[in-house]
């Protein structure tokens, strides 16, 4: 007699069979169910009955995400995978102390103890609702790089996915060095990977970096500070991935991957069934009828029908049948997107005479060569290229390759094409593979825009991933299924993982597939309107562009929700490329471009592309040692790489402005002057002595992390400790190593600045006599009635760092300080904490603190004076940008991705909030502003709103709870005035930020010019 265990997970069904002696006699082949787990469960039973005979099966037990609903319907045994996975592991590795498990959507850690022949679960940790770091996460990245996104002939099968994944892993094993890839969130991962691809990082290095980042994310979010003892066992579908195993062995050198590692949950379920010692053979009749009929109590939406919109399918341009006798003058536009690359050939009458639309595959240069080959095959030598232009996320590297005459951001390009196709258009919705965009147009110019921030829900890749999991072709089948629904289900507009959970939940309750797919169309629309458009204006002429606009179901959902016609131009899937061609044509006609730098089709097609790697030495004061790729484009040198954006932009950049972020940093260092010890010198002494450098020039050393509130009040504390006779040491600027150290040391999920703070604290450990980690509760405020609090995570940062890094003992100095309070109160608190510990009298502390406070105030006053000089230097027609944000975001070049440098390089006059005297700005309409930084941000916004030539840019970071509220207030204050909110995080990709900055510059220039024209007209009328 046999016992069967079946594990129905989020992605696969696994099955194990035990004989009467408890020996494993059969493991079913790994099988993906693509969301159709009911029929696959039936197939599994049929295979087992055929192999062993139905009468020999004594008992069956289920486990896994979807196992419970099946067990409930069949009245069969069920046990949670947290138990069955442990039982399965201990069957093969009886002394296992830790279990690392990674499945389709789940990742977990089990820590076990063994006593008196029994095992006990000491600790359990699991990933949250995000699927980053799971099997589905790896599958998505492999498919995005290796499979077709929009291909009518695509096949959906386990063999297809296995082949893609095997090739993906094989490529990664050829890596010469893992590239930095943030894996905290799917969106950050894609952003980093696309950025790396577009600047030419070899795919092997990107894939290796993905797996290393995945392991680091697991250590940070799940292992945290827990002690993991050997033997460590790695199970689940991802344990088959040799790259992931290799990445984990950096942390667990003796990691064990046992046999049957994909089926140990099923094995544990079978062991559980044996222990129950009861017959449990299910009646499959209930399973066969489980999906019959649909429930009627689902929230529904109207069927997807087009009543006002004129939908045009993808228009095919016929190939030319004869060779022209004379050269045909054309403009070339190339749109290199995150997932697809498009080209448009436009004649002098602005007609599209040729277009191409293919997947990028992470190879922008090679794909561009292939597209140029396609043009040459059709037209031969009959073309005369008047000018060329590139747009999209890979516009700079491809623009450099073809020597483009114009490199333009995709916001401006899409707006230009939209106006060409409909001169009355006022609103553009554009949904691409990775980005969603909103553009407001007035008098033919973009006057406002926004893009999705960190969430890719509702984009082309989002649709593709969900369709793949359901084995639906995204091109035509998806649309046909959606339009066949008579009762679309109202799904919540949420991220990919939540959406997939909703789809599965409704499917379990009997929902029809067509109703779910139609509901997904509505969910995409609501997601876009709520997360991208928000409260921005939606006009009377709305145009929908991008790959998903070819899907009639999504178009119908937009029409039904907005209750108005959606403008659907021909060739809308390539309008970014068309807009680039139109833009360069205008510049040529206006004599802004004379002649063309285009190198010719044959030259580019035949160009031999090679590269070598080196380390960036452009800035002697920068110690990041970024890797650079020096390309040889058929004899032309092209440099790409680095985290600062130095090599990101091409074209004419003569109009550079002053970098006010750098100016603040130089002033900050000037005020530190001789107050701090050089970090490199101290580190060399500590390394040479193989022990902390407890004194420097006879002074006891004290270390201060260059993070969080120290970027705001670092001068205060440097002067304070220096006046008391200490040698002050600041940690180095945030770099990749510090960032990774912080991420890997976390014991809880926090915002990125807190992780970076952990990295700085870890860098300073055991290097000096003392480590200064104060608890700063609040900051000085403009008005006494304001509370001025720091956020709870900043207030409690030292407690988290102490727990995570095991910091203890007399070397830690951690007073609690209320900076808003009087000098006497602060001195009292400092003396209470430091007096006995360091043997320092109150008078010494009082004198040192007052002198340090004078230095801090002088620094702040100098900033304000610089700001006044800046404002006085502005001409009547100048526009400028005030950048607001929390100091630890604004003034750390790793966290702000060198924002100041990139603003200056783009020719934007931009000044951080610390340079502006906003103390007199009335904040009475925000009487309960709790946060000190929040008050400064809102004051800056009101200052900008009141000045006609000023515009606002707000920098924030993902997971900032306080800013999730502040952003709404910021938008409210700005009203109809254009502004930009940048939301950054762990990713190092700067390309997305530069796109937004370029578009923002174009928008505010248009708005400012229009305001000046209106003012001139008003003045003329008045006279």
Short note summarizing the structure:
The protein is α/β, with parallel strands linked by helices and 1023 residues long. It contains 34 helices and 35 strands.
What are the key terms here?
single chain, alpha/beta, 6-stranded mixed β-sheet, 34 helices, 42% helix, 18% strand
Could you characterize what this model shows?
The chain is an alpha/beta fold and 1023 residues long. The protein is built from 34 helices and 35 strands. The strands form eight sheets. Strands 1, 2, 3, 4, 5 and 6 form a six-stranded mixed β-sheet that branches. A hairpin with a 3-residue loop joins β11 (328-336) and β12. α21 runs antiparallel to α29.
Major beta-sheet overview: 6 strands, mixed
Q: What is the C-alpha radius of gyration, as a whole number of Å?
A: 31 Å
How many beta-strand elements? 35
Structural class: alpha/beta
Summed up, the helix count is 34
The end-to-end span amounts to 103 Å
How much of the sequence lies in strands comes to 15-25%
Helix-strand blueprint:
Blueprint: E1 2-8, E2 12-18, E3 24-27, E4 31-32, H1 37-52, E5 57-63, H2 67-74, E6 77-78, H3 81-92, E7 98-102, E8 107-115, E9 118-126, H4 135-146, H5 158-172, H6 186-198, H7 203-223, E10 232-235, H8 242-248, H9 264-276, H10 285-288, E11 328-336, E12 340-347, E13 352-359, H11 364-379, E14 383-391, H12 395-402, E15 406-407, H13 410-421, E16 427-431, E17 436-442, E18 445-451, H14 460-469, H15 477-483, H16 496-508, H17 513-533, E19 542-545, H18 552-562, E20 566-567, H19 575-589, H20 601-606, E21 609-615, E22 627-633, E23 636-641, H21 660-672, E24 676-677, H22 679-689, E25 695-696, E26 699-704, H23 710-723, E27 727-730, H24 736-745, H25 752-764, E28 770-772, E29 775-778, H26 792-795, H27 797-805, E30 812-813, E31 816-818, H28 823-838, H29 842-873, E32 880-885, H30 887-890, H31 899-905, E33 910-912, H32 932-945, E34 950-957, H33 961-974, E35 979-984, H34 991-1022
Parallel strand pairs: 1-5, 5-6, 7-10, 11-14, 14-15, 16-19, 19-20, 24-27, 26-27, 26-28, 28-30, 29-31, 32-33, 32-34, 34-35
Antiparallel strand pairs: 1-2, 2-3, 2-4, 7-8, 8-9, 11-12, 12-13, 16-17, 17-18, 21-22, 22-23, 25-26
């Amino acid at each position: 007699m046999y016992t069967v265990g079946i594990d129905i997970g989020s992605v696969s069904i696994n099955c194990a069979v035990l004989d009467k002696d408890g020996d494993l006699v059969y493991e079913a082949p790994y099988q993906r169910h693509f969301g159709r787990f009911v029929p696959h469960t039936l197939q599994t039973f049929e295979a087992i009955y055929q192999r062993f005979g139905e009468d020999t099966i004594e008992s069956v037990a289920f486990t896994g995400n979807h196992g419970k609903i099946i067990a409930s319907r069949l009245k069969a045994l069920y046990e949670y995978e947290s138990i069955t996975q442990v039982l399965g592991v201990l069957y093969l590795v009886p002394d296992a102390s830790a279990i690392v498990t990674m499945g389709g959507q789940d990742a977990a850690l089990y820590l076990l103890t063994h006593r008196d022949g029994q095992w006990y679960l000491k600790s359990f940790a699991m990933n949250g609702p995000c699927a980053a770091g799971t099997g589905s996460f790896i599958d998505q990245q492999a498919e995005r790089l290796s499979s077709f996104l929009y291909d009518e002939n695509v096949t959906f099968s386990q063999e297809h996915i296995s082949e893609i994944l095997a090739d993906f892993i094989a490529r990664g094993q050829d890596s010469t060095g893992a590239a930095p890839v943030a894996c905290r969130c799917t969106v950050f991962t894609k952003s980093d990977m696309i950025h790396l691809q577009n600047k030419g990082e070899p795919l092997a290095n990107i894939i290796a970096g993905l797996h290393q980042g995945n392991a680091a994310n697991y250590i940070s979010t799940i292992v945290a500070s827990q002690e993991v003892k050997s033997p460590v066992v790695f199970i689940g579908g991802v344990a088959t991935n040799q790259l992931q195993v290799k990445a984990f062995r950096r942390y667990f050198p003796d990691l064990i991957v046992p046999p049957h590692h994909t089926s140990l949950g099923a094995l544990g379920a079978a062991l559980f069934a044996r222990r129950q010692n009861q017959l449990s053979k299910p009646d499959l009749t209930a399973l066969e009828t489980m999906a019959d009929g649909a429930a009627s109590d689902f929230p529904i939406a109207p069927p997807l029908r087009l009543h006002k919109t004129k939908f045009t399918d993808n228009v095919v341009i016929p190939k030319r049948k004869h060779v022209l006798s004379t050269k045909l003058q054309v403009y070339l536009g190339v749109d290199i997107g995150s997932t697809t690359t498009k080209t448009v050939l436009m004649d002098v009458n602005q007609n599209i005479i040729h277009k191409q639309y293919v997947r990028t595959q992470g190879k922008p240069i090679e794909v561009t060569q292939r597209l140029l080959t396609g043009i040459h095959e059709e037209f031969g030598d009959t073309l005369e290229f008047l000018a060329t232009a590139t747009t999209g996320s890979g516009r700079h590297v491809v623009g450099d390759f073809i020597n483009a005459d114009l490199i333009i951001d995709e916001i401006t390009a899409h707006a230009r094409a939209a106006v060409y196709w409909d001169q009355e258009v006022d609103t553009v919705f554009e949904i691409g593979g990775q980005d969603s965009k909103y553009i407001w147009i007035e008098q033919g110019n973009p006057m406002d825009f926004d893009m999705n921030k960190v969430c890719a829900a509702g984009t082309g890749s989002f649709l593709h991933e969900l369709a793949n999991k359901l084995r639906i072709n995204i091109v035509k089948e998806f649309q046909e299924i959606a339009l066949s629904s008579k009762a679309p289900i109202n799904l919540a507009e949420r991220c990919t993982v939540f959406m997939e959970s909703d789809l599965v939940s409704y499917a379990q309750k009997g929902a029809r597939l067509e109703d779910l797919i139609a509901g997904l169309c509505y969910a995409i629309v609501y997601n876009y309107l709520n997360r991208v458009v928000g409260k921005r204006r939606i006009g009377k002429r709305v145009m929908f562009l991008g790959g998903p606009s070819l899907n009639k179901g999504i178009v119908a959902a937009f029409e039904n929700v907005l209750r108005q016609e959606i403008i659907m131009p021909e060739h809308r899937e390539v309008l970014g490329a068309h807009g680039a061609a139109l833009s360069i044509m205008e510049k040529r006609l206006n004599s802004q471009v004379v002649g063309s730098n285009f190198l010719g089709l044959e030259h580019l097609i035949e160009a031999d592309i090679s590269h070598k790697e080196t380390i960036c030495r452009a800035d002697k004061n920068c110690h990041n040692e970024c890797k650079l790729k020096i390309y040889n484009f058929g004899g032309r040198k092209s440099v790409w790489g680095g985290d600062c954006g130095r090599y990101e932009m091409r074209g004419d950049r003569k109009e550079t402005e002053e970098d006010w972020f750098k100016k603040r940093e130089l002033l900050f260092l000037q005020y530190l002057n001789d107050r701090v010890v050089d970090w490199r010198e101290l580190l060399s002494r500590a390394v040479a002595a193989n022990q902390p450098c407890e004194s420097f020039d006879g002074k006891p050393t004290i270390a201060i992390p260059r993070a969080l509130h120290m970027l705001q009040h670092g001068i205060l504390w440097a002067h304070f400790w220096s006046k008391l006779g200490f040698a002050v040491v600041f940690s180095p600027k945030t770099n990749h190593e510090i960032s990774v150290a912080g991420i890997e040391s976390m014991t809880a999920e926090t915002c990125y600045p807190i992780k970076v703070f952990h990295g700085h604290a870890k860098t300073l450990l055991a290097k000096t006599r003392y480590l200064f980690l104060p608890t700063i509760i609040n900051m000085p405020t403009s008005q006494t009635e304001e509370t001025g609090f720091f956020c709870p995570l900043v207030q409690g940062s030292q407690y988290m760092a102490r727990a995570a890094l095991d910091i203890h003992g007399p070397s830690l100095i951690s007073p609690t300080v209320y900076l808003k309070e009087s000098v006497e109160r602060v001195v009292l608190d400092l003396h209470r904490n430091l007096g006995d510990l360091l043997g320092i009298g109150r008078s010494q502390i009082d004198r040192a603190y007052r002198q340090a406070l004078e230095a801090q105030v002088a620094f702040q006053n100098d900033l304000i004076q610089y700001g006044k000089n800046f404002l006085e230097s502005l001409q009547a027609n100048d526009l400028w940008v005030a950048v607001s944000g929390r100091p630890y975001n604004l003034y750390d070049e790793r966290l702000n991705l060198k924002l100041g440098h990139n603003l200056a390089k783009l020719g934007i006059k931009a000044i951080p909030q610390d340079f502006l005297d906003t103390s007199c700005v009335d904040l009475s309409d925000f009487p309960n502003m709790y946060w000190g930084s929040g008050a400064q941000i809102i004051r800056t916004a009101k200052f900008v709103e009141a000045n006609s030539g000023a515009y606002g840019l707000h920098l924030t970071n993902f997971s900032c709870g306080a800013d999730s509220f502040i952003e709404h207030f910021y938008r409210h204050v700005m009203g109809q005035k254009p502004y930009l909110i940048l939301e950054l995080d762990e990713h190092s990709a700067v390309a997305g930020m530069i796109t937004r900055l370029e578009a923002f510059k174009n928008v505010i220039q248009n708005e400012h010019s229009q305001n000046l024209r209106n003012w001139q007209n008003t003045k003329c009328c008045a006279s």
